Amino acid sequence: MYDVPLPFMSRGIDAYMATWEMFFDTSEKPVTFRFEDVEITAGADVAFATAVGNCVNIDPTGQRQPLRFRLTMGLKKVAGRWRITHEHHSLPAG
User: Is residue 7 helix, strand or coil?
Assistant: First the structure.
């Protein structure tokens, strides 16, 4: 997974879950994602999906802040099942 917080790239389930723990610690509960502009392009064995995601972050002072991000996922069909092989989240600069 490529992500905004360090280390920017994580490999393996433990590293992947650690980046989500950082996110969940600063998110409004229950964590709710709303996706828009979802686009999927698929071939026989490879696909990718893109979307704009929205959720709510809680800043260090406890204030709610909308969080809007871009999500890109790469998928590959392995043994007849689709597997996520690449996940990337990005925030607008500025």
Answer: coil
Cα dihedral across residues 83, 7, 18, 22: positive or negative: negative
Distance CA 47, CA 63 (A): 38
Q: Measure the CA–CA gap between 18 and 24, rounded to whole angstroms.
A: 10
What pLDDT is recorded for position 39? 98
What is the CB-side half-sphere exposure of residue 46 using CA atoms within 13 A? 2
- pLDDT at 60 (0 to 100): 86
pTM for this entry: 0.75
Bridge partners (DSSP) listed for residue 49: 40, 73
Long-range contacts of 82-90 (CB under 8 A, 24+ apart): 82/47, 86/1, 86/2, 87/1, 87/2, 88/1, 88/2, 88/3, 89/1, 89/2, 89/3, 89/4, 89/53, 90/4
